[in-house]
Each structure stands twice: as C-alpha cells, then as structure tokens.
C-alpha cells in the first residue's frame, strides 16, 4: 500500500492538533469533580454529548478483503456526532461524515480487481445510527477513570459520486449521471445513494468533566459494488475505513457527573472506601441500638407484678400480690359468705395449656370432687377464669371466659344444676406469678372457684 508523504503528514498533523486542542481545553477549564454515591436513574447524570472529529479515509479495511484497486490513498475526512447515554455501558450515537476516497492501480503490483487506472469518490454524506458499548477502562474498580475503550456498530445511509479514469485515459464522472446499480433505469441523479454498515472500535481519554478526547477506527461496509465506480466483481461489495481523532463535549448541569464515566462496580465498594458513608452506617447502627434499648426499657418490670415500670404507680409490690392496671394492690374482699373452695375443701386450681380452653384430664379428679360437694350440699359456686399476658387484652379476656365456661360445662354434665354455677373472666388481670417467665405464665393460665 503506497500513499504520498504529503498526505500522510497532513493526517498526522490533524491528529496532533486535535490532541493539543483537547489539552488546551483541559488547562483552561479546571476539572470539577462531581460524583454520586449511589447508582440511581439517568436523571442524576449527564447523558447527552456532542462531538467533532477529523481523520483519514481510505478504500481499505483492517480485516482485508477484495479491492478493485491495488494502491490506496489517504484523504481527509471530517464528521459530527450526537450521543445519548442510556446506561453506564451503552449509548446510541448519531454520526455524520464527509470527505473523499481514492485509489489507483499499479501494473507492477498484483491484487487489483479491475483494469481501471484510478478513481476518486466524493462522499457527499454518510449518516448512521450506531450503538456504542463501553467495554472497560484502565482500572475498572476505580470510581474516577480517565481512559476507556469502546466498540461501535450500526447502520446508515450514504450518498457518493465516483469519478473513474480508465486505462486509456477516459474519465467517467458519475456525478449528475448516477443511476445506481447496473440495470437501474431510473432518472440520473447527482449522487448514488445506498445503505452501509459501520463497525468500529476506539479509546477515549477523559480530559475534564466536560471534555473527552477520542481516537477511533471504523470499517464501513457499503451495500453496493460501485462505491469506487467499478463493477469489477458482481458478487462483492465495496468498503472504506475512517481513522479519526475528535473532541467530545458533555451537555447538562455541571452538578451532575457524566453517566458514561460512572462505575457501578466501584460504587459497591463505597462503604469500605468512603469514610462519609461508613460514618452514616455507624450512625444508623447506633440509632437502631438506641431504639432497641428503649423497647427493652418499656418492657422492664422490676417488681414482677405484670405492669411495666413506666406505668407502675406502686413499684416494689411483693411478688404474687394482685394488682390493678396501674400496678397498685387490689383491695381485699372479705365477704363472710364468699370462701375460696380451694381453702375450705382443698380443691386445686385448674390449669390450661397455652392459648387453650380445653380441660386437661388431670383436672377431672378435682372437678369431680367439686361436683360431688355441690350435688350433696347444695349452694352456689363462682368460677373465675384467667390468662397469661401473651396476646391482646381483649383476646385474653375472651380466653379467660372460655376457660371458666369449660369448667361450668363439665360440672353441669356431671349433674350440677346450671343455676348453681356462675362464671367470670378476668383476662390477664390478677396474675399469681410473674409473666416474664414461662413458669410464671403457666401458673397464670388457670381457673379458680369460690363457693357462695
């Protein structure tokens, strides 16, 4: 592949000048670091950017392939782009390109696909929409990166006009005579138009929060065999390449970081690396501990009377003392006609399982003895039901009534008149043991009887 020293120097100068311009922008505009601690929606980032680029166009591509001319030239190309970043690793980009592509045949060289002497194709425009994938950076664990790599691919539409010089010197200029592919009888136009597929790669450098410097290379596959003005091989398609350097400018609020440089993986390490976040986490842990301690203080019952200290108006009540809702002892009732059966006849208290009003078989002997006394001696009995402190107050009241009614049902079924038995439910009131232990709660799940 041969090309003139002048054109090569021009291309290298363009790249150098673009690099110098980007560095100048970096020096004149100090980078303002803006970042986000938690990766959220696109709204917290800058997602739009515009760019300009310039470089070299050539009728060859890096992966090889057939060519109609065995010598190629390097020509100036230039373009614009607008990009919308959809995520930290993917964007959609609209590109526009202009320039010219040329080449020639050297009889001393092999590989030409035609006998034409040379060609020059004016690229009026090439417009495409492509996807841009950020494939990584120099240090992918760093929050702030300055170098990134990308791949691009898409589809586009272009207009071009080849000018071909035959071996005998005859010049054929397609501009104004373009009829498209062979056999197309439509009216002649200034330019041939068709589709192409751009595929490329590149690297970008973060000059500042607003400016990127890009180096890239794109292979363009034309959906036609007349890009160079020669139908040398009917089954092949032409192609050309564009190597460029460019500046890219991020749009949007300076208070927001650029989405394309964000690094969600690095954000995952913030709690380990960011002292501010660590302090916030520790503060949250302390607040949770304080809440847990407050809850424990609310449940604290020093004297074990079933009333929390903060509501206990009579602290220090002796264990086993019946108290009211404020923790003060209930007044003793000394009615001559009311005597607890358990004190007179030795009847035991009747116990129940947790959340149950079903009589235990072990209670039957006690109940049979009480039934016998009532049937033989007459009189009346009051059956008082109680519950431990689990559950709501309303539920425990109902449960205590159910327990008392279970005892009454047993007595009536054993021959005692229903009019001889009265029932009452007291819920979790009047505990005879502490509800802070399971042993105490077992004692409080009970029924007591008193003869009248």
UniProtKB/TrEMBL annotation:
Instruction: Enumerate the Gene3D superfamilies for this protein.
Output: 2.40.160.20, OmpA-like domain (3.30.1330.60)
Q: Where are the transmembrane segments?
A: none
Q: What is this protein called?
A: OmpA family protein
Q: Which organism is it from?
A: Pedobacter punctiformis
**InterPro entries per record:** Bact_OuterMem_StrucFunc, OMP/PagP_B-barrel, OMP_bac, OmpA-like, OmpA-like_sf, TSP_type-3_rpt
The protein's predominant localisation is membrane
CDD domains assigned: OmpA_C-like
- The residues forming the signal peptide are 1-26
């Amino acid at each position: 592949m041969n090309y003139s020293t002048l054109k090569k120097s021009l291309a290298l100068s363009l790249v150098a000048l673009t690099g110098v311009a980007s560095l100048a922008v970096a020096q004149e505009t100090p980078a303002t670091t803006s970042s986000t601690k938690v990766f959220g929606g696109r709204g917290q980032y800058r997602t739009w950017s515009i760019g300009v680029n310039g470089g070299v166009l050539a009728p060859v591509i890096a992966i090889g392939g057939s060519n109609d001319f065995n010598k190629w030239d390097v020509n100036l190309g230039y373009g614009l782009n607008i990009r919308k970043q959809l995520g930290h690793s993917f964007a959609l980009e609209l590109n526009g390109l202009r320039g010219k592509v040329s080449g020639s045949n050297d009889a001393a060289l092999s590989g030409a696909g035609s006998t034409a002497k040379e060609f020059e194709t004016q690229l009026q425009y090439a417009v495409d929409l492509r996807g841009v994938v950020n494939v990584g950076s120099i240090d992918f664990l760093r929050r702030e990166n300055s170098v990134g790599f990308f791949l691009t691919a898409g589809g586009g539409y272009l207009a071009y006009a080849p000018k071909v010089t035959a071996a005998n010197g005859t010049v054929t200029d397609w501009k104004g005579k373009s009829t498209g592919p062979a056999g197309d009888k439509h009216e002649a136009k200034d330019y041939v138009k068709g589709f192409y597929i751009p595929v490329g790669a590149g690297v970008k450098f973060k000059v500042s929060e607003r400016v990127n410097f890009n180096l890239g290379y794109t292979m363009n596959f034309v959906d036609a065999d007349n890009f160079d003005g020669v139908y040398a091989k009917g089954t092949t398609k032409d192609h050309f390449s564009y190597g460029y350097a460019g500046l890219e400018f991020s749009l949007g609020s300076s208070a927001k970081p650029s989405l394309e440089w964000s690094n969600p993986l690095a954000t995952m390490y913030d709690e380990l690396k960011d002292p501010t976040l660590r302090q916030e986490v520790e503060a949250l842990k302390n607040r949770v501990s304080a809440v847990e301690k407050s809850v424990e203080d609310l449940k604290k019952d020093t004297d074990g009377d079933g009333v929390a200290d903060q509501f206990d108006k009579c602290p220090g009540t002796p264990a086993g003392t019946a108290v009211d809702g404020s923790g003060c002892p209930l007044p003793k009732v000394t009615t001559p006609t009311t005597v607890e059966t358990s004190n007179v006849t030795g009847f035991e208290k009747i116990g129940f399982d947790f959340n149950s009003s079903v009589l235990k078989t072990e209670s039957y002997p006690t109940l049979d003895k009480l039934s016998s006394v009532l049937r033989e001696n007459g009189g009346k009995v009051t059956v008082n039901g109680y519950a431990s402190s689990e559950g709501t107050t309303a539920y425990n009241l109902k449960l205590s009534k159910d327990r008392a009614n279970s005892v009454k049902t047993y007595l009536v079924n054993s021959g005692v008149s229903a009019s001889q038995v009265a029932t009452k439910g007291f819920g979790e009131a009047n505990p005879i043991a502490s509800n802070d232990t399971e042993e105490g709660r077992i004692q409080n799940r009970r029924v007591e009887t008193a003869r009248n």
